[in-house]
Amino acid sequence: MARELDEDDVRVRPSRGSRPRTRDRPDHAEAVAAVVVGVDRGRYTCRLDTMADRLVAAVRGGSMRRTSVIVGDRVALVGDVSGAAGLLARIVRREERTSVLRRTPDDSDPVERPIVANADVLVIVCAVTDPPPRPGLIDRCLVAAYDGGLSPVLCLTKTDLADPAALVDLYRPLGLPVVTTRPGGDLRALLELLTNRVSVLFGHSGVGKSTLVNRLVPAADRAIGEVNAVTGRGRHTSSAAVALRLPQGGTVVDTPGVRSFGLGAVSPDRVLRAFEDLAAAAAHCQPGCQHLAPSPDCALDSAVRDGHADAARLASLRRLLGTRGASP
Ligand SMILES: Nc1nc2c(ncn2[C@@H]2O[C@H](COP(=O)(O)OP(=O)(O)OP(=O)(O)O)[C@@H](O)[C@H]2O)c(=O)[nH]1
Ligand SMILES: [Zn+2]
């Protein structure tokens, strides 16, 4: 990402060392709380907690230069928060994240690209046909969700064109909510899962994600335009994530530019933790066991054999753990 200069760059920075934090991180008692709803080349569009209608453009303050700030981050702003055109606030603090959805450019690349912070739910949007479903990609999304601390939801679109039963069966052992949509169909089941939560919508091109966003968020295109306009970067249409407000309460983050999930940095342990029933059994595995293939040394196999774990769930877990390195 291009590094931006801001007014703090001319200030002499205190030397790093064992000084009290207040020296390089002043108290900023006057700072106001906001959430980042859009990012464009070093400029951040922020929505104030106290004035949800106000979008404020901001840059990172000097002490924040090494801190990544992404959509969904909760931040503290100082300076001009009027939202007036051409004026910039400064981000002086980023609150601790509750979750991070990340990807890497590809599986061999260890560099993580965090995409969205603090989301509760990852909605994996997949058409039952046209384009044909890609279970490999769904599995990768599931791994990214479990790894990042988000609860996945599978949203199957275009159920007017084909029967979703095979996909529903494939994902049943995972126990995640599966909802279906079709033109004119009601969205209540999905809305119930999204209301008052922060959710991220991911879907491969053509699956009907824009159609869904437009149904969930009235005037979604205008709302996206407003978020992108605040950073003042001309007519550039951002392909980055944008956080939109749900009328029912809650936030939906659209991720237009994300085409796939590279899983270079995923921790198998974090994925395993999402399978509570199996995680307990895995405690009896040999140290370093990857749990990937049936083996006398993997306690997951004995747990299934002894009736303490479900074979279909173990197969699903192994499929997910094996997605790393497999092409989507
Ligand atoms: N039959 C049917 N068509 C749908 C449904 N949802 C979306 N479509 C159509 O599928 C096509 C793709 O929908 P979009 O919403 O643009 O898909 P997208 O996932 O946003 O695709 P990109 O914009 O390329 O990222 C459009 O022609 C939609 O009208 C559905 O539930 N049933
Ligand atoms: Zn094992």
TrEMBL record:
Residues 108-261 form the CP-type G domain. Its main location: cytoplasm. The keyword Chloroplast does not apply. Keywords: Cytoplasm, GTP-binding, Hydrolase, Metal-binding, Nucleotide-binding, Ribosome biogenesis, RNA-binding, rRNA-binding, Zinc. Residues 1-27 are annotated as: Disordered. It is found in: Cytoplasm. GTP binds at T157, K158, T159, D160, G203, H204, S205, G206, V207, G208, K209, S210, T211. This is Small ribosomal subunit biogenesis GTPase RsgA. The lineage of its organism: Bacteria, Bacillati, Actinomycetota, Actinomycetes, Frankiales. The gene is rsgA.
